[in-house]
Design a protein that fits this description.
Length: 161
């Protein structure tokens, strides 16, 4: 008989294959003006829906997916912001909705802390796995972030979000 709880950790199964989307990069979130700062540009009408943004004094940010593999085939996927070189933002915009998007490779820094590891500011590379999806974090020169990306984790790393 199917159950809606995990045999490993006892949590509801719908908590295991989740997508958690950060609304803003952490440095922007920590300001009074947030995305309303003068000169801010967003790819969509609000920060939650945007896939790119530029915030004066903080720089350029692009969305990426950071999958956390859990035991028994489950995945917690974070929709994170990456800080990218502002000089690259226009070229990213130019290909984002074009056929060339499938070949987009980005290098940036995580602009969101990931519980329980932290990792804010660590360098990460992305690849486009599916042209209809946001790029995925694929590799990091940072030993801790690369371990997070490559390892399978117990269910107790799941944050209570």
């Amino acid at each position: 008989m199917p159950t809606d709880t995990c045999s490993t950790c006892g949590r509801k199964l719908d908590l295991h294959d989740r997508h958690v989307r950060f609304t803003l990069p952490d440095p922007v979130l920590d300001t009074d003006e947030r995305e309303a700062a003068a000169g801010t540009w967003m790819s969509h009408g609000n920060a939650r829906d945007s896939v790119m943004m530029y915030v004066p004094a903080f720089g350029a940010f692009v969305r990426a997916l950071l999958p956390i593999r859990l035991v028994e085939g489950h995945t917690l996927t974070y929709g994170v912001w990456l800080g990218v070189d502002p000089r690259r933002l226009q070229s990213i915009i130019d290909v984002w909705w074009a056929p060339e998007y499938r070949d987009l490779r980005l290098r940036g820094r995580l602009a969101n802390a990931i519980r329980p590891w932290g990792l804010l500011g660590t360098s990460v590379d992305t690849v486009v796995r599916d042209p209809d999806e946001t790029p995925y974090c694929s590799h990091s020169d940072d030993r801790d972030l690369d371990r997070v990306l490559r390892s399978e984790w117990p269910h107790d790393v799941l944050p209570d979000i």
